[in-house]
Design goal:
Number of domains: 1
Helix content: 40-55%
CATH class: Alpha Beta
Distance between the termini: 64 Å
CATH architecture: 3-Layer(aba) Sandwich
Number of helices: 11
Mean pLDDT: 88
Strand content: 5-15%
Largest sheet: 6 strands, mixed
Structural class: alpha/beta
Low-confidence stretches: 1-40
Radius of gyration: 26 Å
């Protein structure tokens, strides 16, 4: 009996010891989960580059299903929603994130440039509020709509100098240390700007349907010719390894069945040579079909 009593006493003391251990509070558990999740704790720096060339013209490029500028607006909506979803996944004291919108060159309409300035959002623990976070999506939707409406109404499309943006502006305007830098490019995949027309062998700063046909990249052996004769864009930067790029809106000329593949080859080769390791190139699909793709790219880093 004495031995049994001793065993019972020891068992009771062990159970008491374990029961007295402090269980982590719900707040502590959540904090640990947030800190251990790199995706949540990262600070985002998201940039959107708009191609306001005549690709959005209702006269030159009409689309009865959904106009291309409306598709752009749908893509931007998904980007802003992903941004706010990211913000809401963080504690107030952790928030230190940015989102901005760019053109190159700047539109002639000063009102458009003013809107773009207003859409440069920088949120940290000092200005973050529930009201501000809830206003981002509606503000981006209404303000970007005004930009496209103004550009279409003006009907003086100055073109889009995407190559020059990557050459001289992307590092200063879209990349910051200790941030996850994401650039969303809204374009049809073609590049041409009169002031930035350069050629080095079979490398160029532009790509057009005419150039593709002229270079004979409209036949089934286009891939062999592309690689053997070193076609592609002139490299615009040496190291953009701290930048991720999502290209949306590719709209190849339907007259050439290989056009889309050629466009993708140009952009992929260009990004790879500039050491952009994470990039995707997507067609001008309906926004409802692109929403998951956009949000996965932004919220679920590979």
């Amino acid at each position: 009996m004495k031995n049994i009593f001793t065993l019972i006493t020891i068992s009771f003391l062990i159970a008491s010891t374990f029961s007295c251990k402090k269980e982590p509070s719900k707040e502590e558990s959540t904090e640990k989960e947030i800190v251990s999740n790199n995706t949540v704790s990262e600070d985002y720096n998201i940039s959107i580059l708009l191609d306001l060339s005549d690709r959005i013209s209702l006269k030159k490029n009409p689309n009865p299903t959904m106009e291309y500028y409306q598709r752009d607006l749908g893509y931007i909506k998904s980007v802003s929603e992903a941004f706010t979803q990211h913000l809401k996944s963080k504690r107030i004291r952790q928030i230190n994130d940015k989102m901005q919108l760019f053109f190159n060159p700047e539109p002639l309409d000063p009102a458009i440039n003013t809107i773009a300035q207003n859409l440069r959002i920088s949120i940290d623990k000092n200005n973050a509020s529930k009201e501000l976070l809830n206003s981002i999506n509606s503000d981006y939707a209404s303000q970007t709509s005004k930009i496209y409406e103004s550009a279409i109404k003006d009907n003086k499309y100055v073109g889009s100098d995407i190559w020059s943006f990557f050459d001289s502006k992307v590092k200063d305007q879209c990349i910051e240390n200790k941030y996850r830098n994401i650039l969303i490019v809204l374009t049809d995949g073609y590049m041409f700007y009169e002031s930035t027309v350069m050629k080095e062998g079979n490398r160029t700063t532009y790509i057009t349907p005419e150039l593709i046909r002229k270079n004979g990249l409209n036949t089934k052996d286009w891939d062999t010719k592309f690689h053997d004769q070193n076609f592609g864009f002139i490299k615009a930067n040496t190291d953009l390894s701290n930048l991720e790029v999502l290209v949306l809106g590719i709209n190849p000329d339907k007259k050439n069945p290989y056009e889309e593949k050629v466009i993708r080859a140009y952009w992929s080769k260009w990004f790879t040579e500039m050491k952009i390791s994470h990039f995707e190139i997507k067609n001008a699909d309906l926004p409802s079909n692109m929403e998951k793709i956009i949000k996965d790219f932004i919220l679920n880093k590979e």
